[in-house]
Design a protein that fits this description.
This protein is of the alpha/beta class. It has one domain: Rossmann fold (3-Layer(aba) Sandwich), CATH 3.40.50.300. It contains seven helices and five strands, in the order βαβααβαβααβα. Strands 2-3-1-4-5 form a five-stranded parallel beta sheet, sandwiched between helices. The longest helix has 21 residues.
Length: 163
């Protein structure tokens, strides 16, 4: 199963994704780690994004060989990015689950002020991505880490995924 945790920078994706991967014994992939390894000077450039996403698809495929579940953490703010993951899941015979993280803007602003591993996102990047964020129109789980404990979010996610 491919579980995509997406949302705006500072929404709590990375903290939750890491916890979720541990909770369900899944492989964890952070999109920013891939872009760091690719050494792309402008990872927000469209060409660089396509290159990074091709490597993401490759990494998902490789990790699914060793584990039946992969948690992917990234903004995935464009429909085309999410569609690419769904298509790959179908091709691999895997279920794709999308989880959107949402938090209040003051909470996200507070998180973005802190130094975080593998990301350069700040409030300026948040505003750029927010302006271009394309809503996910298919049924999916929406979680609010600013309103709920992570343990409750993990339980809710496990029930939604496994029933």
């Amino acid at each position: 199963m491919i579980i995509v945790v997406f949302g705006l920078p500072g929404s709590g994706k990375s903290h939750f994704s890491q916890q979720l991967a541990d909770y369900i014994n899944a492989e964890y992939i952070h999109l920013d780690q891939i872009s760091d390894r690719m050494n792309e000077p402008d990872k927000y450039d469209e060409k660089a994004q396509q290159y990074i996403y091709r490597h993401l698809i490759k990494e998902i495929t490789e990790k699914l060989i060793f584990n039946s579940n992969v948690v992917v953490d990234g903004t995935f703010h464009e429909k085309s990015m999410r569609r690419m993951i769904r298509k790959k899941a179908v091709k691999l015979g895997q279920k794709a689950v999308f989880i959107e993280m949402k938090s209040s803007e003051p909470q996200m602003k507070k998180r973005l002020k802190k130094k975080r591993d593998f990301t350069e996102s700040d409030f300026e990047v948040y505003e750029q991505i927010k302006e271009n964020f394309e809503p996910y129109e298919k049924p999916h789980l929406i979680l609010r880490p600013d309103r709920n404990k992570v343990e409750d979010l993990l339980d809710r996610t496990k029930r939604a995924i496994y029933g």
